[in-house]
Amino acid sequence: MKNRKKMSVSILFVCAVVLFTGSVSLAAAETFAASEADKPVTFGQGIREGKDILEKTEERIKLRYKETVKEAEVLAKYEADKAAKIAEEEAAKAAAEEAARIAAEQEAAAKAAAVQETWAQASAAEEQVQTVWTGPVSASVDEQTLLAALIYCEAGGEPYEGQVAVGAVVVNRVKSGAFPGTVRDVIYQSGQFGPARTGKLDRVLANGSTTDSCYQAAAEALAGVSPVGGALYFGDGKNYGQKIGGHWFHS
Known about the structure:
By secondary structure, the protein is mostly helical.
């Protein structure tokens, strides 16, 4: 009889735990009841023990609940930190991409400005090139051919205006009084024109490679046309004077 009462109390206790926690299985309840049935205990004592166990179980459940809440808080903080870090990295990446885009735009704008400045300088230089009439000089056909050959040697690859300018320098020297008084003598004056000194001029005369534009430029220069005014010198190593093509012209 006592065992049956004890069994009932035990089952009652286990059922209470089941209802309270929702985590004890029926098999566990039966096992607990069977183990309790073997212990000699009075009905009142069983109730008290059951109550004590119930209170301890409740305390453990509360403790576990607090631990679970704490774990949940830790997990939530971890997820929040992780999301914040990802957001920070994405923001940094977006900022870097924006900075790169702005830098590229600035570089492109600077290059465009440089090109524009180059064009402006070229236009200004072209505006400074003024063709003037300095008056003709007399020259034989051979001298005109010689001048054309010199123009070919010095400026065969230059713009036509640059070819006329080279011929004008020779003509300006003839008229200056500071150089020999004939086209031939000016061209062959010692130390003045490289093609005459190296023999290139004579080879061009011999093989007849002078172009039509160089003949035309020689004719205009002898007629008194000068894109460089009274310039007496030219070269590609000077950075002053008047620039036409690859040559600088100056007095």
